[in-house]
Design goal:
mainly alpha, two-stranded antiparallel sheet, elongated, 2 strands, 5% strand, 156 residues
C-alpha cells in the first residue's frame, strides 16, 4: 500500500476523532487553556522540517498558509460560545460537522491530485502546514470570543 493511501486513511480517522472530541467538548464548560493548548501541542509537528525531505519552498509555504487561513474562516464562523449555568460552553453547530467533513474531502481530493506531481514528504509538510494554518487563526478567534464572554460573565 502506498504512503498517500495510508496517510489518507489516517486523515479520515483523525477527522472522525475530531468530530467526537468536538461533540463531547460541547457538554463541558471550557476555559482558555482548552482553547490555546491544541495548537501549542500541534506545533511540535514542525520538527518534521528538520528532515530535508519535508521542507517546502517559500512559494509553497505562502500558498499553503493562505489556503489554511481561508479554510479557517469556515471553522471560525461555526464556533460560538454561550453562557449556561454561569459557565462558558462551546455551542453545538450542525454546520460544523458538515464543514469538517467537507474540508476533509477537499483535503483528500487535493492530496490525491497533488501526489502525482509532488513528492510524498513535501506533500506531508504542506498538509501539516495547511492544518496548522487553519487551526491557529481559528483558535485565536475562539480565544477572543471566549475572553469577551468571560469579561461579560465576571463583570470585568
Amino acid at each position: 500500500m502506498n504512503y498517500v493511501v495510508v496517510s489518507s486513511i489516517g486523515a479520515v480517522f483523525m477527522g472522525i476523532l475530531a468530530l467526537f472530541v468536538r461533540m463531547k467538548a460541547a457538554n463541558k464548560p471550557t476555559n482558555a487553556l482548552k482553547i490555546i493548548l491544541p495548537p501549542v501541542f500541534m506545533s511540535s509537528g514542525a520538527l518534521m522540517y528538520v528532515v530535508p525531505q519535508f521542507r517546502l519552498t517559500s512559494m509553497e509555504i505562502i500558498e499553503v498558509v493562505i489556503v489554511g487561513m481561508l479554510f479557517s474562516i469556515l471553522l471560525i464562523k461555526t464556533s460560538k460560545f454561550e453562557i449556561r449555568e454561569n459557565e462558558i460552553y462551546l455551542k453545538r453547530s450542525k454546520a460544523f460537522i458538515y464543514i469538517l467533513v467537507g474540508l476533509l474531502v477537499v483535503r483528500l481530493a487535493l492530496k490525491s491530485i497533488l501526489s502525482t506531481t509532488i513528492d510524498f514528504g513535501e506533500l506531508s509538510g504542506m498538509f501539516f502546514l495547511l492544518a496548522f494554518s487553519m487551526i491557529v487563526p481559528w483558535r485565536i478567534a475562539m480565544y477572543l470570543d471566549y475572553k469577551k464572554l468571560y469579561k461579560q460573565l465576571h463583570g470585568i
